[in-house]
Amino acid sequence: MSHKLKVGELKEDYLTDEEIWRIFTIVLSSKSVKSSTYKYALIKALIENLYQINEHFEVRYDQLAYTFTKIYWNLIVHHNLMNQNRGKRARVVTIIKNEQVKHSIPSQMIFDKLPDSLQLKLLSKVRTTMRENVFGALYGDTRGFFYAFDHKTEILRFNPAVHTFMLNYQRLIIQLTNYHMSAMIEDLNEVPSINYLLGKVESIAKRSSLKPFEKILLSRFEARCFYCNKELAGMKRVIHIDHFIPWSFVQSDNIWNLVLACSKCNSSKSDKLPERDFLEGIKERNIQLYVHGDDRQLDKLMENYKPRKIELLYDYSIKNGFDTIWTP
């Protein structure tokens, strides 16, 4: 009954990669009781928030709930995959479906386009479900070796060794998780809902627009392409916002990983890494954002950012197969 736990203490600080793989194998196998897809969704949420931790390897419940809700919004609202549980309907399905019907939300609506008040309402309800059924369950399957958690502070703390392991094998872990989550959803749902199922599970919806980030960057920096330094002005100079580290790897939108770019650089770079010389440039740019200090919204967006973080992100993306280097 580990899912009923309100506090879970970390059982071991150091684990070898072999020991961590052994635990992951058990989590993904039939030895782990999975009455719903919740555990897979939590693993996906942990992966998306690997770079959002503070110096104590902590991540807040609301950060994890945001990703968790996005995953199920995509599956339930966009793709009508209603069966995420063995037996009665999963609570997260009921929460999301009820709000969709109540507010007459079309199936094409992306989660982050919802009004802030509705997002917060959904996140609060989903976070409660995660407290009751998710954090303790995966904690039990990983035998307390992967993370600690506390419902009172609403903080989850990674085992540092597991955090490093997830960074090193990020793509492989997410691919394994997507495969097993897809297999379970396929078993629970019927055709035609499962057509192209793996693609539906793999996608964690991007923000519908990066315009808010564009406005912030333009308010503090010249309208020039970060890569080729061309001026982004005039009728034909369309401004693009590019993920310095490709979105297909990091799968999240952080202002410290976003740069102004011209259309030529943005399209040719695609999902490649820029050459390493640009690392110093984005670190310098981020210092200017980080020390601004007079904008609460920006302070929030830069929360937990450290210069070393983007260096690690760059190195780990190469380890995960993003080894084609682009230059303008």
UniProtKB/TrEMBL annotation:
Database matches in SMART domains: HNHc
GO MF annotation, one: endonuclease activity
Residue stretches making up the HNH nuclease domain: 212-267
A Pfam family assignment: HNH_4
Keyword NADP part of the UniProt annotation: no
CDD domains noted in UniProt: HNHc (cd00085)
Alphabetized UniProt keyword annotations: Endonuclease, Hydrolase, Nuclease
Protein name: HNH endonuclease
Protein's organism: Exobacillus caeni
